[in-house]
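<amino_acid_chain>
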Amino acid sequence: MLKKLACVTALTFVVACNGAKPPENTPAADASGTTGSGASAPISAATSAPATPVASFKEVTIPSGTTLRLSLQSAVASDTSRVEQPVRATLRSPVSVNGQVVVPAGSEVSGVVTEAEESGRVKGRARIAMRFNSLHATGESYDIRTSGYAQEAAATKKQDATKIAVGAGAGAALGAILGGGSGAAKGAAIGGAGGTGVVLATKGKEVRLGPGAAITTRLTAPLTVRVRS
């Protein structure tokens, strides 16, 4: 018994000298300092993205009679174009309603040739005509009704008369040199006939319009378009 007591006393002395504490049965505290089942749930850092604004539109009616100032993009000519040939043009200036631009400059219009008459040798001036029936603007296409656009060649009567007179004058001068007064009369008649022949053999001017030519038409019916509000 004394031996067993001595062993316990010696063990206590050793522990006290080393400064160690006897083990405790208390459970270790949670390092996170949190309790409950929600302690381990992750915190969401996601944020919702801002909604993309949706563009809004309104309808605006362009009244009948509105002028469309166009710049031709297709080449047309009285002696080479044919009826129903496609024609394209763009707006040279925007179309506005109550101070608001509803069709921007550069918008495309399209149509067809409605008449193509080349110049005649004896009579008849050259003529080209077209009409536009479609508008493409701000991603939208519209059917339109417009007045026709036509251009006619200038008259050549004065030029023809000049050619005849020049011919007659040259003939008269030559006749006077060769045969005096009667020769002058005959020469004038011959020269005049020659000048007339030149006129009859020569065609009049043609009408030719190339890309960039400025033309104008107008709406003959109201047109409703969608405009960003």
Notes: Residues 13-17, 196-201 have pLDDT under 50 and may be disordered. The chain is about 25% helix and 30% strand. The radius of gyration is 50 Å.
